[in-house]
Specification:
mainly alpha, 10 helices
């Protein structure tokens, strides 16, 4: 019986986390109240507090979900042998992932998570560092076989990769989600690849 209750709690926590991401996408972190999150999850606010102590715990769960999703994006290219192809697939999937979840940039880049709340800031930092290291490993693989520019530091190339995505997402948000991130993905990728591939 205890195991069944635990599984039910885990499912409910997942539902609340996904609901929170949806509400944050609509109203931002400050505008996402526990009442609205509970409503989006189809439960009462009182029931929500049975699964999370407070709003901060919900936001932590959202950040953890984003981290898990980014790990899944990296894991999906493990079997791809060509490093440049790995980076391309990851780049385009990352943009598609954000396009389908507006709450992601509104969580990761909010003042609450990167300025005001030290606990949330540390969690976001760890999430970004984890993803950064995953991309950096692919970059270094590409440099070892001579596909990517070896005169550039692997950390610099990785920063360019993530920075290109960051700029595209920021511009997309500022322009009210137009054009689609996936519409620009090919051009953005080609510009990045041209800048970092090995020159004979």
């Amino acid at each position: 019986m205890a195991k069944r209750m635990r599984e039910t709690t885990e499912v409910r926590q997942k539902q609340i986390t996904e609901a929170a991401l949806q509400v944050i996408g609509q109203k931002g972190i400050n505008g996402a109240t526990t009442v609205e999150i509970a409503s989006a999850a189809g439960i009462s606010e009182g029931n929500l507090y049975r699964h999370f102590r407070n709003k901060e715990e919900i936001i932590k769960s959202v950040i953890d979900k984003i981290g898990s999703d980014l790990v899944a994006i990296l894991a999906a290219v493990v079997e791809v042998s060509a490093p440049l192809q790995k980076l391309e697939i990851t780049f385009k999937r990352h943009l598609k992932y954000i396009e389908g979840n507006v709450g992601i940039p509104r969580t990761i880049f909010s003042e609450e998570t990167i300025v005001a709340n030290e606990n949330l800031r540390a969690r976001v930092k760890n999430t970004i560092l984890m993803y950064f290291q995953g991309i950096k490993q692919i970059v270094e693989q590409g440099q070892r076989i001579g596909v990517l520019d070896t005169e550039m530091d692997s950390q610099a190339i990785t920063s360019m990769f993530i920075g290109t995505i960051h700029f595209a997402v920021t511009w997309w948000l500022m322009n009210n989600f137009s054009p689609k991130l996936t519409d620009d993905a090919e051009g953005l990728w080609k510009n990045f690849a041209r800048a970092v591939t090995h020159k004979d």
